[in-house]
Amino acid sequence: MNLIFIGFRGTGKSSVGRFVAGKMGREFVDIDDYIENSAGKSIEDIFADEGEECFRRLEAEAIIDVVRSDNMVIATGGGAVISDDNVRAMKENGFLVLLEASLDVICSRLLNDTGRGSQRPRLTEMTAGDEIRHLLVKRSGLYHRSADCTIDTSLDTIEDISKNVIALFGDIE
Ligand code: S3P
């Protein structure tokens, strides 16, 4: 079974996913990286050139492709749960771990990110802080409805979070 991380931007899906995969000796796939490699351009450029609708189509295709394999650790983009089809595909052969963090922690991680995350495309016309608040409220039900378990990443280290994930997943496998 695949181990799949869902959750909002800045909750640690990619960092925890990569660490967990290393510990479990499993292959790790980040859906955003997969989309960028398939499209031959960055997420930011896909949004700028072709718009969000096109990105969501590429995201759905990437999810279908990746979940076809077994025994993977997969980090999804924050909007993957918007589509019921995506959630259905992931749940067919996946244990979905929702990573959460407090609003303050998410804001500080996203607004202080100087790496690749700083290029995340904006999803609304709102200010950055308002967008985060708005989308968290809007998506909260979708995240919780899709998740098999939930872990808060606000305070713990990646090592401790990963230990919890591996223990939870070990119990269901
Ligand atoms: C998105 C989150 C991003 C990326 C895209 C859209 C979203 O992934 O898929 O920018 O809708 O929340 P991360 O959650 O890895 O930042």
What brief labels describe this structure?
single chain; 173 residues; alpha/beta; binds shikimate-3-phosphate
3D structure, described in words:
The protein is an alpha/beta fold and 173 residues long. Helices cover 57% and strands 14% of the residues. It contains seven helices and five strands, in the order E-H-E-H-H-E-H-E-H-H-E-H. It has helices spanning 13-24, 31-39, 43-67, 84-92, 103-111, 128-146, 158-172; strands at 2-6, 27-30, 72-75, 94-100, 149-152. Strands 2-3-1-4-5 form a five-stranded parallel beta sheet, sandwiched between helices. The longest helix has 25 residues, at 43-67. It is globular and about 45 Å long. The protein starts with a strand and ends with a helix. The mean pLDDT is 94. Shikimate-3-phosphate is lined by residues 9, 13, 32, 43, 77-79, 120-121, 123.
Give a short synopsis of this structure:
This protein is an alpha/beta fold and 173 residues long. The protein is 57% helix and 14% strand. The longest helix has 25 residues, at 43-67.
Kindly report how far apart the N and C termini lie. Answer: 8 Å
What pattern of helices and strands is seen along the backbone?
EHEHHEHEHHEH
- What profile does the largest beta sheet have? 5 strands, parallel
Shape: globular
Mean pLDDT: 94
Category by helix and strand content:
alpha/beta
Ions and ligands: shikimate-3-phosphate
Helix content, binned percent: 55-70%
The spatial strand order of the largest sheet comes to 2-3-1-4-5
Number of helices: 7
Low-confidence stretches: none
- Roughly how many Å is the radius of gyration? 15 Å
Beta-strand percentage? 5-15%
Total number of beta strands: 5
